[in-house]
Amino acid sequence: MANLTGFYKRSMAERIALLAAEIGLSDEQTTMMRLHQSVIGDNQVENYLYNFGVPTGLLIDLPVNGRLVNVPMSTEEPSVIAAANNGAKMMRAGLGVQTQASQRLVRGQIILTDIIDMVTLQQYVTLHETELLQIANAAHPSMARRGGGAKSILFEQLDEQRAIVNILVDPQAAMGANVVNTMAEAVADELRGQGYSVLMAILSNLASEALIHATVRIPVAALATKQGVTGAEIVAKIAEASLIETLSPYRAATANKGLLNGIEAAVLASGNDTRAVNATLHAFAARSGQYRGLTRWTVAGAELVGETTLPLLLGVVGGSIGIVPAVKLNHQIMGNPTVEELTAIVAAVGLAQNLAALRALVSTGIQAGHMALQAKSLALQVGAQPDEVGKLTDLIQQADKIDETHARSLLHALRNGK
Ligand code: MEV
Question: One Pfam annotation, family name (predicted)?
Fold first, then answer.
């Protein structure tokens, strides 16, 4: 790969040409790359090639805190947006999702090692809390001016020689990573100046100081299936499935993956950091020492009640949000939510997604719905043209096997009028 050295110094066009020469790309491939290049992308990442598109679809009329919101979702998984819409429809049979948020603080960790006198360190931090907070805020003055910024310090002893000085920061409308890292590094410099050994200074992605609680109550009858399974049967099984998630970490991981199908798609479309959201949710799911499902469904009289508490730190400013036009568009589609509203929307998307998955799992199973969508993907994959996709999708679904070879022969037969 010697010919690719200095790749980052090349222009966007040169990078395509170099890569094409190195590994042999078709004209079709290089044209595809050129068509998906953007100056913004080139400024966002190193060795930029092109923008990898993720299909974005709409979750329509998600009922959140008394409003119906349209939510763009970006995902490559065929069934996700269909399922989210299905979940939202069931939720609209009741009053929809209600949320309550706690404080919204981000934690920065200044990790100290080789501590000789823990008591003196703790006293120093307690006595100088105001000064350390001032140092943190001086590193990002605009945040404090707007009423946010570093609010408090939490001393945490890890063992005899190790401790963490945590700063808790209100990042206002931002997700907070940059602000907190800047502030934590400033406090780290001060502690180094006092002779302490600082291993690192970085935010924590376990956002336990930014919790949102979401609840939804749905009339049991709204859960009945077209195949004749009653709402009462379905809700009893959903409640049972929810209980299993507290007992089996293997089931809990899958259920949380389903929740994240929705959450991650909405978070990605909103220009937020999906990895941060994944990290916080999985860490929180294991907070009791056993990994559990993040939602809880119970039956209360004639209603199915869904609840979740999620540590969620999102932003409506910062990162790619003000830069990428598609992200701006997605915020506009949602009605330009505040950060609190966006957090509520994302939690509600998670509940809708989880509900649809559980209802399918305890009734028909998910393959029936998935197969229809997979048949369509397969039709496209084997080269069906727009006017052929519908017919080929039907043929693939009617066939007893869904595989590429069979789909190709069905397309061949379709084209030959057989
Ligand atoms: C598939 O992407 C997601 C599900 O497995 C979630 C779940 O099992 O709850 C259906």
Answer: HMG-CoA_red
Please choose, from the candidates 61, 57, 51, the residue with its C-alpha nearest in 3D space to the C-alpha of residue 74. Answer: 57
State if residue 261 touches ligand 1 by the CB under 6 angstroms criterion. yes
Query: For residue range 109-165, what is the model confidence (pLDDT) as tens digits?
Result: 999 999 999 999 999 999 999 999 999 999 999 999 999 999 999 999 999 999 999
Other Cβ atoms within 10 Å of 242 Cβ, number: 19
Classified as helix, coil or strand, 60 is strand
Minimum mean pLDDT range among 9-18, 34-43, 81-90, 395-404: 395-404
- In the prediction, which pLDDT does 254 show? 98
- How many whole angstroms separate alpha carbon 189 and alpha carbon 191? 5
Going by their DSSP bridges, the two strands 106-113 and 197-203 should be labelled as antiparallel
167 C-beta neighbours (distance < 10 Å), count? 29
pTM: 0.91
Ligand 1 atom closest to the CA of 366, numbered from 1: 10
Contact 59, 92 (CB under 8 A): no
- 362: its two tokens: 């305890």
Task: Read off the pLDDT of residues 204-243 as tens digits, 9 standing for 90 and up.
Answer: 999 999 999 999 999 999 999 988 999 999 999 999 999 9
* 124, two tokens: 């120093």
Give, for 70, the enclosing helix (H) or strand (E): strand 67-74
Q: Which domains can be identified in the chain, with CATH numbers?
A: 2-44 (no CATH), 60-97+214-364 (3.90.770.10), 106-203 (3.30.70.420), 369-415 (1.10.8.660)
For atom 6 of ligand 1, the residue with the nearest CA is 258
